Fold this sequence. Notes:
By secondary structure, the protein is mainly alpha-helical. The protein has helices spanning 7-27, 29-55, 60-109, 122-132, 138-150, 152-178, 185-224, 229-239, 245-261, 270-297, 305-319, 321-346, 352-361, 370-381, 385-394, and strands at residues 112-114, 117-119. It has a two-stranded antiparallel ribbon.
Amino acid sequence: xxxxxxxxxCYLVLIVVLTGLAWLLxxxxxxxxxxxxAALLAYVLNPAVTLITTRTRLSHRLSVSLVxxxxxxxxxxxxxxxxxxxxxxxxxxxxxxxxxxxQLEDALASPITFLGFDLSLDELLVGLQEISSPLxxxxxVLRVLKATTTNLAWILVILVTTYYFLRDWERLREWLxxxxxxxxxxxxxxxxxxxxxxxxxxxRGQLLLMLVVGVLTxxxxxxxxxxxxxxxxxxxxxxxxxxxxxxxxxMVVAALIAWFEGSxxxxxxxxxxxxxxxALYNLVQLLENIWLQPRIMGRSVRLxxxxxxxxxxxxxxxxGVLAALIIVPLVGSARVVGRYVHRRMLGFEPWPEAxxxxxxxxxxxxxxxxxxxERRKRHDSQTPLCQQRQSRSDS
Length: 395
């Protein structure tokens, strides 16, 4: 008769397995980024697969193939339409920044007289030349674009992995849930549902916000005659990922271009045109913060704005743009799991609203008023489940 492992053996095996997983993650760390991108793409496309499967008689695999082919077709069309425009605008923006650099060098070449003293800015000029010389060349932009478009191996990995994530996500999810003990699988399913809500609210909302902000900024910049409007719109949309800091950086870049280049057709001085551009960028941010963000993001990601700012900036600094994109839903998911663990450890029901409604469904003869219902829910959320059942059985 086989005997179960002792506790010491279980702990030893667990340590060995965790160590092996850590080593494996370190060994394949270059794959983490593409796999995360593929998972995000599959997550965004999965609702379309679900919609087609439920509304039609197509099988899940056929629905996945249809959505995936449509995604590839849209991607190819966007690349054909926008890549030449982006390259042209990037060259134009690079030339504009080079012109700003020349004007700054001319301004810093002569000393500034302040209160009878001549202030030499030679050292600042040398530092500006050292910093800007490798950044403001059109050749550098072309090299970056070439390196991005020629790295076909990683693009192929992302596209293939996205297809298999779409096709086998349900089986993968069920396999992960079945790893938990049978008594706790219902809790794992509910946790998955809550975490899924966090990711849906943030990822789709953030992508939509970036798109809307980029389009509004690009159209507004083009309307006032700001050079490089398309590139500035793309920059504003991408930097909208970083709260406060990102829009500020985009506005500063646009203000510098407006100050040194002026408008393409508005009869305004460069100073007043810069004021117009700053007002335009602030108007877009005001529209986003007051009207767009509450409606798009909703109340699903219940995190303090200060925590969001620190998390995004820290992830952007330490791990790059991809980490900044997913750090907020990761923190939101950690909040959901932490709340569950905290309530389980204290003996409370993790989801009191669901249990309260099920317990009261067949016991109340008359419906509660609004205030009594709110007091009952607040009481249930602060009372262990065993005491709730005891008090209801007594009543």
